[in-house]
Structures are given as structure tokens and as C-alpha cells.
């Protein structure tokens, strides 16, 4: 008797030979990881992903890590105008001044959040206290926003975050595991 090919049961975007995309799908997307540095990393990557796609961003992830000082919010918050100009010329990342400056502003906002709430994770969990598990049968049933994302986006804007609309935040919540939108037949819905 033939064993089913579980790789073909993954969410459609995870059914790829691209190991970077597949690893992200299998081991990060929808998996709760609430460490502030990782939360900031995902926020920066989501910000740069806007208007592009995950493949482009994930293939440049290590370059972003170098450019944004291992996603250390303290280090990123202190990036100077001279460093911004250098980043705008860095072909190994997305050379968008507005997005680069937004990442710096968001690092500053995270530092303010940490001072106010103790951690960025605690701030997020006040709005989303436990993982939201959706049960889509097909990937077309996965939403691109929700009332939760709108609420989180609004609260983040009030706390001086930028480039955090409801669609970006919905995708962000998926990437950090506060929302799990793996389709029901995906073998990675409940495992990492």
C-alpha cells in the first residue's frame, strides 16, 4: 500500500521545492514564537514584504539580518541618517527609504512598548491573549484581514508604529503564530 505524500497536503504556498519557503511554512508560519527580537524581525520582514512577496523577502532574510543589526531594536533605533543612506544603496536588501525609516521608527516604538509593558510580546498578548486557530478547508478561505488585525493595527499606530495597516498586521500575526491559518489537511498545522 502506498503511503500518502504529505508534502502535497501542505498549504499550497508551502508546496514548493524552494527549501527556504518550505522551511518557513513548515516551522515558522502559524507557530507561536513570542520573543521580542523575533517579533521585531517578523515586523521588519512584513513591512518590507508589502507590495512584494515572501519569496523575495525570505531569500534576502540574512541580508536584512545584517543590515538591521540582527534585528536588535536598540541597535536599529540608533541607526543614523548616514547609515540610512548606506542602506538605501544596499542592493542586497529592498532599497526603499520609506520602509527603512519605518523599520527604525518601529524599533523606537518597540523600545517604548518594552518600557511601558515589559515586553513587546506582552503588549501583543493583551490584544491577542491566545492563538487564534482558523480551520480553512482550502487556502482561498484564508482571510487577509480581520477585526483582530484592525484592532492590533490601530493600537500599534497609537503607540507610534508606522506601516502597520490591517493587512500587514494580519500577515504579521500569522507569521508569529498568534493566528494559525494552515489549511486543515496540512500536516504542519499542529506541529513545528
TrEMBL record:
<protein>
    <submittedName>
        <fullName>DNA-3-methyladenine glycosylase I</fullName>
    </submittedName>
</protein>
<feature type="binding site">
    <location>
        <position position="25"/>
    </location>
    <ligand>
        <name>Zn(2+)</name>
    </ligand>
</feature>
<dbReference type="InterPro" id="IPR011257">
    <property type="entry name" value="DNA_glycosylase"/>
</dbReference>
<dbReference type="Pfam" id="PF03352">
    <property type="entry name" value="Adenine_glyco"/>
</dbReference>
<keyword id="KW-0479">Metal-binding</keyword>
<dbReference type="GO" id="GO:0008725">
    <property type="term" value="F:DNA-3-methyladenine glycosylase activity"/>
</dbReference>
<feature type="binding site">
    <location>
        <position position="186"/>
    </location>
    <ligand>
        <name>Zn(2+)</name>
    </ligand>
</feature>
<dbReference type="GO" id="GO:0006284">
    <property type="term" value="P:base-excision repair"/>
</dbReference>
<feature type="binding site">
    <location>
        <position position="11"/>
    </location>
    <ligand>
        <name>Zn(2+)</name>
    </ligand>
</feature>
<dbReference type="GO" id="GO:0046872">
    <property type="term" value="F:metal ion binding"/>
</dbReference>
<keyword id="KW-0862">Zinc</keyword>
<dbReference type="InterPro" id="IPR052891">
    <property type="entry name" value="DNA-3mA_glycosylase"/>
</dbReference>
<dbReference type="InterPro" id="IPR005019">
    <property type="entry name" value="Adenine_glyco"/>
</dbReference>
<feature type="binding site">
    <location>
        <position position="182"/>
    </location>
    <ligand>
        <name>Zn(2+)</name>
    </ligand>
</feature>
